[in-house]
Design goal:
By secondary structure, the chain is of the alpha+beta class. It has 13 helices and seven strands. Strands 2-1-6-5-4-3-7 form a seven-stranded mixed β-sheet.
Length: 294
């Protein structure tokens, strides 16, 4: 690709914005970088002279790439694949600006990402682009293959899901802490029956790419399979608050290595996410808790 026309510089001006869009769409920094990289490649193959609004054009490209990735992920019923490539070709020398990383992490909490994961891909795209980045519905509509009115409805449905997510009261936190403590105790003791009693029949255990590399299974579904995975294990996992929600942490040398994020409804565990990516773990608000007596 001939970069004499200043493509790299023009792309770089939009990179931070594109990465923010992709991260909110995908909930994975490695996949967000993949989406931005794909946008860079498509930009390189395009006739740049015909692009009047480069920021809008690139945002649309990234959105389409993310939508395809979400649909592919859903069709396989699995979590994001391991990163295929490096960071963007036109990234800053020395990597991502730490200040920009911090701003990105602060702007999207774990709780919101969990809610976004429950949305259908078109709903998620419409909500993210409109509510978070103020893209008009007439520009969103072609990306999702709907009319502007239908795109508006997608965002509205998503907004109700996000706004309708239950607030986390102290009673919820106490109840969920009891569930997590019971889960950890049953896991350490190898109490298969107790584990089953705590798990929703359709519970999902998901591991991020870093956790998979160190031996975790990417996706485990169903109470029986998840109970078998944990029975007799999690011996050194510690009860913790993860962005204010009860969960667990495995630490080594005083440094958190793996975070166990639980999604709990009532007294049943719906999902467990194993987060081992150091960047992701480093941005979480973690507080190790003492185990309740008795």
């Amino acid at each position: 690709m001939d970069e004499s026309d200043g493509r790299a510089e023009r792309f770089e001006e939009n990179r931070t914005h594109l990465r923010a869009v992709a991260y909110r769409m995908l909930g994975s920094l490695s996949e967000a970088d993949d989406a931005v990289q794909e946008a860079w490649l498509r930009f390189g193959r395009s006739d740049a002279s015909g692009i009047q609004n480069l920021g809008g054009w690139l945002t649309t490209v990234v959105a389409r790439v993310c939508l395809d990735m979400l649909r592919s992920r859903n069709s396989r019923r699995e979590e994001p694949l391991s990163a295929h490539g490096s960071a963007s070709i036109v990234s800053h020398e020395g990597g991502i600006d730490p200040e920009q990383e911090a701003l990105l992490a602060d702007s999207v909490g774990l709780a919101l990402l969990v809610v976004l994961e429950t949305l259908a891909p078109p709903e998620r795209l419409a909500f993210v682009l409109h509510d978070m980045f103020a893209m008009p519905f007439d520009e969103i509509a072609p990306i999702v293959g709907r009319s502007p009115a239908a795109a508006r409805q997608l965002a509205s449905r998503a907004r109700r899901r996000v706004q309708g997510a239950p607030t986390y009261s102290s009673a919820d936190r106490d109840r969920h802490r009891e569930v997590v403590e019971a889960f950890l105790a049953a896991s350490r003791g190898g109490d298969f029956g107790a584990l089953l009693a705590l798990l929703d029949p359709e519970v999902v255990l998901r591991a991020d790419p870093t956790a998979v590399v160190v031996g975790a299974t990417k996706l485990v579904t169903g109470a029986q399979a998840v109970a078998k995975t944990f029975a007799g294990r999690a011996r050194i996992a510690r009860l913790a608050l993860i962005d204010g929600a009860p969960g667990a942490v495995w630490a080594q040398g005083g440094k958190p290595r793996v975070v166990f994020a639980f999604t709990i409804t009532g007294r049943k565990i719906d999902a467990i996410d194993l987060i081992a990516d150091p960047d992701h773990v480093g941005r979480l608000d973690l507080e190790i808790l003492p185990t309740s007596p008795g």
